[in-house]
Amino acid sequence: MGVYIRGDGEHLGDWGPVRKRTSFSRYELTSIRPRNRDLSLLELLLVLITVSLLQVSSVKAGGMMSLAIDDLGSLWMWGNCPQQSSSSEAEFSLVSSHIPLPVWNFHGHTVVKVACGNEHVVALVSAGETHTGDDLVCYSWGNNSHGQLGLGDSDSRLRPEVVETFNQESPWSVYEVACGAFHTALLAHKKRPSDTLVSVCWTFGLGENGQLGHGTTKSASLPEPVNGLPQNVFLISIDCGLFHTSVVSSAGEVWSWGMEKGLGLCPDASFTGTDAGDAVSPLLISCDGIYGPKFPGPLQVACGAAHTVLAADDGYKLWSWGRGRSGVLGNGKTIDSFIPSIVLWPPLSEDFKEERVDAVEKNEEKDPKGITEMEKKLSTAMEEMKLLCSKLSTVEQYVSILHGLIFGKPFEERDIPISLQNSGTFEIAKEWENMLESADRSKLLGLEMFYRNMLAGVKDKLMKRRIQEIIKECLNSTQETSQK
C-alpha cells in the first residue's frame, strides 16, 4: 500500500500497490481524497499529471462493448457491459456506459489478456501483483445462457469468477483467449517443463454449429479440448468469428471449424455431398501455390463474422478467405473465396499514385496541355480497368456457383483446364472426355445426380408448359362452341 502525504505532513489518503513509476490507474486515484476538505490546486494538478501518464497497452471489441488494458495492467470497459455489483445475488443485466469505466475486481493484479463476446467477457489475470511466467488465471463473467463462461452451469455472472480448469493450481498455463458470439476458446500448455513445447486448444459455450470443435453440435459449460488437432504442435494464435473458430501453429498450419465448414456466417456457400454443412471438427486450411501447403512465417489469425484473415511471412503477406462482400477479403474482389487468397498487400495503388503525382509535378511546367490530356486518358483507362474488374468479379462469382453446383466444391485455380492454361483455347469436347476419364466414382456419381436433376427439371418445365397449352386450347375450343 502507498500513502499520500502533503508537504505539511497531513495524511490525505492511500492507494493500492504502485507498480510503475509514480503513475497509477484512475480508479486508484479516486481514493486519494482529503479527509473533510477539498483538494488544493497543487494536489489536483498532481492528480491530473498522474492520470495523463496512463497509457493503453491493448484493446478488444466484441458485441456492443469495448475493452482496454492500460500499461499498469488495469482493465477498462465501455459500451453495453455487464453491470458491476458487489452483491452476488443481484440480477444480471447490461448497462450502457459512454466512457471507459474501471473493472474493480482485479485491483492488485495485472490483467494480461482479455476477450469478449456478445455479452460475456473472459480475462487472463496474474495470480500475484505482477505477471511472471505461467501464473495467469482465467476469469469470466457476463451472460452465460450457453455455458460460455466455462463455470459448469448456465447462470450469468455480474462479477468475474475463476474458471477452475485454469486456476492457480491448474497443471495448464493458459496464454491466449478469444470469444465468439456465445462461445469461448483458449490456448494452454502444460506448466511442467518438457522436451517439446506443445499446446492444447480448449473451447466451451454454444456448440450448435460445431464452433467448439468437439465432434458434435452439443454445447459445453466446462472447458473441453478440441477434438482432431494434432498433439505435437504449438498453437500461437486463435480467434473466433460469431460461429466459427480458427487457430494457427508455429509451423504454419491453419485449422478452422464451425459454421459452413469453418467459413463462418456464409449462407451463399454452396457445398454438396457428405462433407456439406458445418464442420464439427477442425479442417486443415492449405496454402496453395509456391508456399503450400503450410503458410510461411505465421504471426496471427483473426476472424470476422464470415471471413478469416491470416498474417504470415513474418508480416509481409496476408491471406484471407470467406465471404467477400464489401471487399473485406482485400483481394480486389467482392466475391466469396472458399480457399485462402492473397490480400493485395502492400497496396500497389498507393505507390502508383505517388509515382503519378511525382511525374505530373516534374512535367507540369513543360507542357500543361499535354499533362491535362494525359490525365484524361489515364482517368479513362482507370475507369475501363475498374469496369473490367467488376465484370471479371461477376464472371468469377458465376463460375464459382456453377462449379459448386456441378462438382459439389468451390472452383479453384487448379480446376482451370490445361488446354486453356497453355494455349488460351478451350476444346470443350476433349476436356469433357478428359475430365470423365480422370474422375473417381464419387465425382461421377455427383455428376450423374446433377445432370439427372437438371434433366428432370427441364422435363418437368416442358410438361407444365404443354399442360398449359392444352388447357388454353380446350378453353378456346369451349368458347368457340358456345358462340355457335
From TrEMBL:
Pfam families given in the database record: RCC1
The keyword Ribosomal protein belongs to this UniProt entry's keyword annotation: no
Protein's UniProt keywords contain Repeat: yes
Domain of life: Eukaryota
RCC repeat intervals: 73-127, 136-190, 199-251
Keywords: Repeat
InterPro entries per record: RCC1/BLIP-II (IPR009091), Reg_chr_condens (IPR000408), Ub_ligase/GEF_domain (IPR051210)
Matches recorded under Gene3D superfamilies: Regulator of chromosome condensation 1/beta-lactamase-inhibitor protein II
PANTHER family per the UniProt record, alphabetical: E3 UBIQUITIN-PROTEIN LIGASE HERC1-RELATED (PTHR22870:SF155), REGULATOR OF CHROMOSOME CONDENSATION (PTHR22870)
Protein name as annotated: Ultraviolet-B receptor UVR8
